[in-house]
Design brief:
By secondary structure, this protein is mostly helical. It contains 19 helices and 5 strands. Helix content is about 70%, strand content about 5%. The chain has a 5-stranded mixed beta sheet with strand order 1-2-3-5-4.
C-alpha cells in the first residue's frame, strides 16, 4: 500500500512537471474587447493586436451583410506569438503544411500565428482573417454540416483577390488539360484536402466559384441552411439546385475551360445524370425539364445527345399540351366555347402522344362546361327567334333558362344578354296587356254610348 502511494505521488509529480512544461511554452495572455470580438494575445503583440482590432469588426459586418446572418457574439480572435506556442497548443496542426491561421468552429475562435503572418503582405493578412472568419459563418449556417472541401472553397471565395489567384489558375489549367481534376468525392475527404492543399485548394475554390456564378450567392446560402436537414451535401445540392451533384460536377468540368480561357474539353457522356430531368418529365413539369435538358445538352457527348433529344421532344409536346390547356381555360372564361372546344381537342391529342393522363379530368370538366355553354347559347338563340315570332311566353322561358345556365358558368356577358332579352320580352308583354285593356275598355265604352244614342225599339 505504501509503495502504491509512492507511485501515485511520483505520477502526480510527473504530470505536474509536464503540465508546467506546457504552461511554460504558452504565452501570458492579455485580452481586449471590440464590438464583436474578444482579442487574446501575448504582451509583445499588442501593436498588431491593436491593428487587428481596427479591422476585425469591419470584416464581421461585411460578412454578415454577404451571408445575411450574424453569428452570436462575442467571437474570439487569438494571436499566437510563435509557431512553437501554436503547435504546443495545437499539435495536430503540425501535419498541415504552411499553416498560418485556422478557425475552431466549436470554440468559435479564429487563430493567427503572428510570427508567420508578419512576413505576409497587408492584403494577405486581411485574407487570413476573412478566410477563417468565413469558416465560422459557414459552420454556423450549416450547423457544422458543411464538408471540409466546400468549407475551404467558400473561405477562399470570400478572400480579396491576390497574387495567389494566378497560381490557382495556373494549376487548374494544368489539371484540366491533363484530365487530372479530382472527383467531387474528395470534398468529404479531410485527409485529401489537408494532405495536398496545393492541389485541393484551387479545385475547391473553383467549385464554389462555379456554384455561385451558376445561381448566385443566395442560392449557395440556401444550400448551407439546407445541410442540417439533409443526409449529406449531395442531397442538399439536389434539393436546392434542382439537379444532382453528378450533373453539377459535369457542368463544373464544362464550365472550367471558359473560366480558365482554355478550349472546351469533351465531357464523357457517362458523367451526365439524366435522372433529375426524367423526374421533372414524370412530374409533368415540362418547362423546368426543358430548361434542364438545354443545360445538359451543352455538356453532353454524342451518345447522351440522342437520349436528351428524345426527352426534349417529349418535354416540348408536354409543354405545348399545357399551353393548349391554359388557352382552353382562357377561352372558357371569355365565353368563346367554340374556340375552347377546338383547344381541348388539341390538348387531349398532345397528352395522348406522351401518355400523360394527369389533365384528363380537368379537360373533361372543361369539355362539360363547353357543352353547357353551347347548349345555353342555342337556348338563347331559340328565345330570340321566338321573340321575333311574338311567342313571348316561350321566348321568356328560354331566355330565363339561358340566363341561369350562363350565370352558373360564370359567363357574365351572355348572362346579361339573356337577362336583357327577358326584360325586353317582359316589357312587350306589359305593352300588349295594356293595349288589350285599352281596346277592351274602348269597346265597352262604344257599346254603352251606342245604346244611349240609339235605344232599342220597345216591343209592343
Amino acid at each position: 500500500m505504501i509503495r502504491l502511494r509512492l507511485w501515485l505521488i511520483t505520477l502526480a509529480a510527473l504530470c505536474a512537471w509536464l503540465a508546467g512544461g506546457v504552461a511554460l511554452a504558452q504565452p501570458t495572455w492579455i485580452e481586449q474587447s471590440t464590438a464583436y470580438f474578444r482579442l487574446v494575445y501575448a504582451p509583445e503583440d499588442e501593436a498588431i493586436a491593436d491593428e487587428y482590432a481596427l479591422i476585425i469588426d469591419t470584416l464581421y459586418n461585411e460578412l454578415s451583410t454577404t451571408f445575411a446572418f450574424q453569428p452570436p457574439t462575442p467571437l474570439t480572435l487569438r494571436l499566437y506569438p510563435t509557431s512553437v506556442s501554436y503547435f504546443t497548443a495545437n499539435p495536430a496542426a503540425r501535419n498541415v503544411p504552411g499553416v498560418i491561421a485556422h478557425a475552431d468552429f466549436r470554440r468559435r475562435e479564429v487563430v493567427v500565428i503572428v510570427e508567420r503572418a508578419r512576413h505576409q503582405s497587408e492584403t494577405a493578412q486581411i485574407n487570413n482573417l476573412r478566410h477563417e472568419l468565413t469558416h465560422i459563418f459557414a459552420a454556423e449556417l450549416s450547423n457544422g454540416r458543411l464538408n471540409v472541401g466546400l468549407q475551404e472553397g467558400i473561405a477562399q471565395y470570400m478572400e480579396l483577390p491576390g497574387p495567389d489567384r494566378d497560381d490557382k489558375i495556373a494549376l487548374l489549367r494544368d489539371l484540366t488539360q491533363r484530365g487530372a481534376l479530382w472527383s467531387w468525392a474528395m470534398l468529404d475527404d479531410r485527409n485529401a484536402i489537408y494532405g495536398q492543399p496545393e492541389l485541393s485548394y484551387p479545385q475547391t475554390w473553383s467549385i464554389v466559384t462555379f456554384l455561385i456564378e451558376r445561381d448566385g450567392f443566395e442560392q449557395f446560402r440556401q444550400f448551407l441552411t439546407a445541410l442540417p436537414q439533409s443526409s449529406g451535401y449531395r442531397s442538399a445540392m439536389a434539393a436546392i439546385y434542382g439537379v444532382s451533384a453528378t450533373t453539377l460536377e459535369s457542368e463544373w468540368r464544362a464550365w472550367l475551360p471558359a473560366f480558365l480561357q482554355l478550349e472546351p474539353a469533351a465531357i464523357p457522356s457517362t458523367m451526365i445524370d439524366l435522372a433529375p430531368a426524367q423526374a421533372l418529365l414524370s412530374a409533368g413539369d415540362y418547362d423546368r425539364a426543358l430548361h434542364e435538358l438545354e443545360r445538359l445538352s451543352a455538356i453532353a457527348g454524342a451518345e447522351t445527345q440522342n437520349r436528351i433529344a428524345a426527352l426534349r421532344a417529349r418535354a416540348q409536346i408536354g409543354q405545348r399540351a399545357n399551353q393548349l390547356t391554359e388557352a382552353a381555360r382562357t377561352a372558357l372564361l371569355n365565353g368563346d366555347y367554340e374556340q375552347a372546344e377546338r383547344l381541348i381537342g388539341q390538348a387531349e391529342q398532345a397528352y395522348r402522344e406522351i401518355n400523360d393522363r394527369r389533365q384528363a379530368n380537368v379537360l373533361a370538366e372543361y369539355r362539360s362546361r363547353v357543352a353547357r355553354g353551347l347548349q345555353a347559347g342555342e337556348t338563347l338563340r331559340r328565345a330570340d327567334a321566338q321573340a321575333r315570332r311574338f311567342d313571348i311566353f316561350g321566348a321568356q322561358a328560354n331566355a330565363e333558362a339561358a340566363a341561369r345556365e350562363f350565370a352558373a358558368l360564370g359567363d357574365e356577358v351572355r348572362r346579361d344578354n339573356a337577362l336583357a332579352l327577358r326584360r325586353s320580352l317582359a316589357e312587350q308583354q306589359r305593352t300588349l296587356a295594356a293595349a288589350l285593356l285599352f281596346f277592351g275598355a274602348a269597346g265597352l265604352a262604344i257599346r254603352f254610348i251606342g245604346r244611349q244614342l240609339w235605344p232599342a225599339p220597345e216591343a209592343w
